[in-house]
Inverse folding.
């Protein structure tokens, strides 16, 4: 009896395997398998194409450059034509007042940028102050269960740590960098625009304290900006020199304001709107 059952079981297993082979050899099964393989190959090719040909990234540097050069490009024909030409818009009162108005803004921006720089410097100095204060704290007793005696220095440490958190949250570092970049870019552009406008209006330049002070301010801007790479490497000498140059710049800026106001009075006297 057991032998007959085993033979019947083996016979059924053979029949199932034979049917499976026939199904695999059928045209429908072969077509389905080939279509699945083709779909897989197509998907893999598409994935490879995406990896090889990534979407182009948007580059705004060209647009920003063209925007910055637009005022200069607009003034080039008038500068080439020289004074006495049909340059009523560029030699009018509105464009002539662009230089002093922007420079007054940059004068205030210089002070604000310096204040931001000092706040960032304070942010960097606080950890060293906290470390020095912690070194002065009384030592904890040998018994780990006994707490250390309270010290007035604990309050100072807490205040310094809270101050540093507030300074970091204010973003003084990034704001200082952004305003410094604005000073350099806009300041140089307007510093060139002023003499160019004077030349178009009068046919000549007027060497004097205002012109020399303006040239010195531009040089100080460039020198202070050139120290930034060394400052980012932690060079304290470069940082101190950066502060000194900008302090001289601010003082020179304030000194040349009276001579600039004299020129503004002449603009109102000898020019008309627009």
């Amino acid at each position: 009896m057991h032998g007959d059952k085993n033979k019947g079981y083996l016979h059924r297993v053979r029949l199932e395997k034979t049917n499976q082979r026939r199904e695999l050899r059928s045209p429908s099964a072969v077509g389905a398998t080939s279509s699945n393989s083709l779909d897989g190959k197509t998907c893999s090719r598409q994935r490879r194409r995406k990896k090889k040909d990534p979407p182009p990234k948007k580059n705004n540097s060209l647009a920003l450059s063209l925007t910055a050069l637009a005022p200069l490009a607009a003034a080039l024909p008038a500068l080439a034509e020289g004074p006495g030409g049909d340059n009523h818009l560029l030699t009018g009162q509105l464009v002539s007042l662009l230089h002093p108005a922007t420079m007054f803004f940059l004068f205030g921006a210089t002070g604000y940028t310096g204040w931001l720089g000092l706040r960032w410097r304070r942010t960097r100095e606080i950890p060293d102050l906290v470390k020095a204060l912690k070194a002065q704290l009384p030592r904890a007793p040998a018994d780990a269960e006994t707490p250390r005696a309270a010290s007035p220095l604990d309050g100072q440490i807490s205040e310094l740590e809270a101050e540093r958190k507030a300074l970091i949250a204010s973003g003084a570092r990034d704001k200082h960098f952004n305003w410094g970049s604005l000073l350099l870019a806009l300041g140089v552009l307007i510093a060139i625009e002023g003499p160019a406008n004077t030349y178009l209006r009068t046919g000549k330049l007027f060497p004097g304290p205002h012109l020399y002070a303006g040239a010195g301010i531009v040089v100080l801007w460039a020198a202070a900006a050139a120290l930034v790479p060394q400052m980012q490497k932690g060079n304290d000498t470069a940082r101190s020199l950066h502060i000194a140059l900008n302090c001289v710049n601010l003082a020179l800026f304030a000194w040349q304001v009276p001579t600039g106001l004299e020129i503004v009075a002449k603009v109102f006297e000898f020019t008309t709107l627009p």
